[in-house]
Amino acid sequence: MSLSVLGRVSTPGRVLLKALLLFAAANLLFAWFNPPAEYLLLFRRAPRFPSIWEPALGAEDESGTGFRRVMLSDLSLLFHAHEISSQPKAGDEYRVVLLGDSAGWGAYLLPEQTVSALINRMDLRTCDGKRVKVYNLSYPFLSATKDLMILSEAMNYEPDMIIWSFSLIGFTAERQTIDFVTENPARLKDLAETYGLKPEIQVAPHPNSFWNRTIIGRRRELNFALRLNFSELMLRALGTDEPHASEDKARTCRSLAGNALDFLGFLPPAGLETYASLDSLSIAAQLAGDARLIYVNEPTCIQPGGRTGTRYNVHYPRWAYDQYRLTLDEMALENGWTYVDLWDYLPPSRFSNSIFHRTPEGEQRLAQKMVEIILEQSCRQP
């Protein structure tokens, strides 16, 4: 643009024009250098994957605590905010990663009350003297595909052992289309093309175009990175990363299991393949490579009447859950997998607001069991 043209533009117009030119230049430079969004993170030692907590008023305050949770699904941001990425793996470290859902993450528990924190305070050593360090890579929501995505990223951090806790509902079709899955299309595409995962959704193309590298093209991840920083500042002032931790939610396991026969609309004699797919178990074995992989059917609450009635609990009728457990046993035996069935390991009193979430006492008992598994499996010869 010539000086004569600029001279004919009014002063407010010149300011706006310069601002637009500067913004365009900033976008071009940002796209050229393409810096990772995690460079914006101020805190990078979270003991579990962080959520974004923000003040909430009115209808947004569903929990009645004055806060609302926004789940972060960007794999890169999640891992770079987590302690596993804060420093290289030490030479004397035996690295254990825990995969799972909100129960494994520690819903309604403080970080120091979770299984990973409890084990790390025990200062365990393997048979050859290595120091056991456990990392909590669980993420809220039961979904096998989500866990495979996290496992594929976790392998970059050289785990020696992977303990994957899951439950039947996490293998159903509806749980493979949660936001976490749909918002990581590149990772889903890689799992499909490299490991044979059969996604429940159409894998959308995600071109790495120049536009997608600009500030505008990356506005979503940049927005999440900045909001995560503000959230961490607020949570540190509160002294917790889980504002719900003090609530008494131990109600679900006190109610009757009910007598409905269906599981997600399916009725016997429906076979397991009609309502769930366990193919992700073999894909996990491929992803794990030389790391020791332990499959765990996680503890669930058996509600009153569940031992003798139609259903074990609000989620599982006996016929479907028994079928699932029998299939797991057969698959583990056929493939030589290490599989531990802990479905009834905890009494109802050790669960909080769902059939999966545990109380601090339940977490302590489960931690002791996990210690047995870690020490036994770490000492076994390949």
Task: Give a description of the structure.
The protein has helices at residues 3-8, 11-33, 75-81, 102-105, 115-120, 144-154, 179-182, 185-195, 219-238, 272-275, 279-288, 318-335, 360-379, and strands at residues 52-55, 67-70, 93-99, 131-136, 161-166, 292-297, 338-341. The chain is an alpha/beta fold. The protein has a domain at 92-201 and 242-379: 3-Layer(aba) Sandwich (Rossmann fold). The strands form 2 sheets. A 5-stranded parallel beta sheet has the order 4-3-5-6-7, sandwiched between helices. Helix 12 (318-335) links the parallel strand 6 and strand 7. Helix 6 runs parallel beside helix 11 (279-288). The longest helix is centred in the N-terminal third of the chain and has 23 residues, at 11-33. The radius of gyration is 24 Å and the shape is globular. It starts with a helix and ends with a helix. The mean pLDDT is 87.
For this structure, the CATH topology of the domain at 92-201 and 242-379 is: Rossmann fold
CATH class of the domain at 92-201 and 242-379: Alpha Beta
Q: Summarize the amount of helix as a percent range.
A: 25-40%
Pick out the low-confidence regions: none
* Beta-strand residue fraction: 5-15%
Going by CATH, the architecture of the domain at 92-201 and 242-379 would be: 3-Layer(aba) Sandwich
What's the gyration radius in Å? 24 Å
The main sheet orders its strands as 4-3-5-6-7
**Roughly what is the average pLDDT, rounded to an integer?**
87
Taking the alpha carbons of the first and last residues, their distance comes to 70 Å
